Amino acid sequence: MRVVKNYLYNAFYQVFILIVPLITTPYLARVLGPKGVGINAYTNSIVQYFILFGSIGVSLYGNRQIAFVRDDQAKLTKTFYEIFLLRLGMILIAGLVFGVFILWTPEYKLFYLMQAVSLLAAAFDISWFFIGVENFAVTVLRSLVIRILTLISIFMFVKTANDLATYILILSLSLLFGNLLLFPSLSKYLGKISFKTLRLGRHFWPAMVLFIPQIATQIYLVLNKTMLGSMISIQSAGYFDQSDKMIKVVLAIVTATGTVMLPHVAHAFAKGDHEKTRECLYQSFSFVTALSVPMTFGLAAVTSKFVPLFFTQQFISVAPIMMIESVVILLIAWSNALGLQYLLPTKQNRAFSISVIIGAVVNLIVNIPLIMLYGAIGAAIATVISEVAVTGYQMWSVRKQISYRQLFSDIHKYLLAGILMFGVIFKLDSVLASSCFALIGEIFIGVVVYLILIVIFKVELVNKLRKRLKHAEED
After folding, report:
1. How far is 343 from 76, CA to CA, in rounded Å?
2. Which residues in 229-365 belong to E strands, given as ranges?
3. For the purposes of burial, counting CB atoms within 10 Å of the CB of 314, is it exposed (0-12), middle (13-18) or buried (19 or more)?
4. Please, how many CA atoms are within 13 Å of residue 112, restricted to the half-sphere of its CB?
5. What CA–CA distance (Å, rounded) separates 441 from 447?
6. What ranges in 135-187 are assigned the alpha helix state H?
7. Cα(172)–Cα(169) distance, rounded to whole angstroms?
8. 8 Å CB contact between 455 and 330
């Protein structure tokens, strides 16, 4: 019941953050233009490297460690302070190095200074603690308040392309204030601590083990924008960033299960319940497949109408990029289930690390020729190839632990429903006039078609839902 409750909290928040970009992104595209969007994407991609090195894998490591000791307040208190202070120290070092970088960088100094607040915010990010104790209500409430204030601030203070620095500062400050708001809620969980007993060093190397895959992950999440900004143009980085933002908005709903399931599976694994651990994977994999297939095919089908309506004609180049990149929705959904919801909670860090390192290496290798040949479209192709490599290796690494038959039991039904839905929407998209009403109509029809098809195909997830509803009515 706790997992369902936490998923609903997280899913509600993900729906909310789905709505916010739908409001702000078209506004900012019109106000800042391709160049302003590109400068923000490029400078943010640079500061993310410093945040990454300062965080040294604490987000994943801290989440898991807190889940392991959450039933013992003394261990919980000690573990929290050790991990928090370790990250604080590393962020301070990263901040000093970033200061030197700004001094030696001739371009975009003002924008880098505004982005630097995000680095400070990372030092006070303790969301990993609340995820570890499976308290999603406090993080969701905090995030809702901050995002609403951020939304209001953007419309109040960002009026022209000259307000780009103000926009970046608003985003950075929202991260900082949001993280600080979590600290009062700690008193419910933590007891007294003697700082003399803390051993920060014992967490360094275990966190570093998870830091390696995070470096690799960051490479193929952020490197595309850095390379586009350096090799092609700031505008092309902006085009890719707009596509990437929309993909991440859709992905947020699918990957909400990963945030919820990691501490839950880690707790079950710590108690030796391996059967429950595998069952969680099968259920989660089926669920994310059911969600990600229609999102992948649906987004690909409406890009030609969606992009000019949402971003304006200035960003028409985003359409083919988004159509190609939509494939990663399904791939990341699978790797999220296998990696974050199974490999990490069951302490298979090596397999997880190798998978994302492979993805990063593949991304780096294919990015250079593809970006040189096709620009932002090449970056999208490289992203898809990288995700295929990550998911493929993770599938191979768990081959002796799970049943592929159970894992992919209904995959052919979901894919067939998705392809048929794509055909219906794509045909409507070419016939209907370009308007918001037509776009909403296409999305609605697509959802209805997909739901009808998976019911007709009798997928197991629908059968389980029917049984639960029947039991609920009987009770």
Report:
1. 23
2. none
3. middle
4. 17
5. 10
6. 136-157, 164-180
7. 5
8. no
Q: What pLDDT shows up at residue 30?
A: 87
Give the Cβ contact number of residue 153 at 10 Å.
17
Neighbouring C-alpha atoms within 13 Å toward the C-beta of 228 = 30
Q: Is 343 helix (H, G, I), strand (E, B) or coil?
A: helix
What are the start-end ranges of the H helices in 312-375?
318-325, 328-335, 349-374
- Could you tell me which residue, 349 or 294, shows the higher pLDDT? 294
Residue with the two structure tokens 């960051």: 218
Greatest alpha-carbon pair distance for the chain in Å reads 71
pLDDT, tens digit (0-9, with 9 covering 90-100), for 120-129: 998 888 887 8
pLDDT of residue 22: 67
Position 373: which residue type?
L
Tokens of 374: 């096709």
In angstroms, how far is CA 169 from the centroid of its own chain?
22
Q: What is the pTM of this model?
A: 0.71
Backbone dihedral angles phi then psi of residue 102, each to the nearest 5 degrees: -60, -40
Mention every residue, 6+ apart, whose C-beta is less than 8 A from residue 424: 445, 446, 449
CA-closest candidate to residue 389, choices 367, 368, 405: 367
For residues 37 and 233, what is the distance between their CA atoms, to the nearest angstrom? 12
Cα–Cα distances in Å, from 421 out to 240, 330, 453? 26, 15, 9
- Which residues are within 8 A (CB) of 152 and not within 5 positions of it... i.e. 6 or more apart? none
pLDDT computed for residue 322 by the predictor:
92
* Mean pLDDT across the chain: 81
Q: What is the pLDDT of residues 26-69, one digit of tens each?
A: 888 888 888 888 898 889 888 988 888 777 766 667 777 777 77
CB neighbourhood size of 191 (10 A)? 10
Identity of the residue numbered 3: V
| Distance of alpha carbon 122 from alpha carbon 12, whole angstroms | 24
CA-nearest of 279, 284, 218 to 254 is 284
The amino acid sitting at 322 is M
- Amino acid present at 7: Y
Q: Which of the 8 DSSP states describes residue 203? A: G
379 HSE (CA, 13 A, CB side): 27
Structure confidence by residue, pLDDT tens digits, 232-277: 888 888 888 888 888 887 887 776 654 555 555 555 555 665 677 6
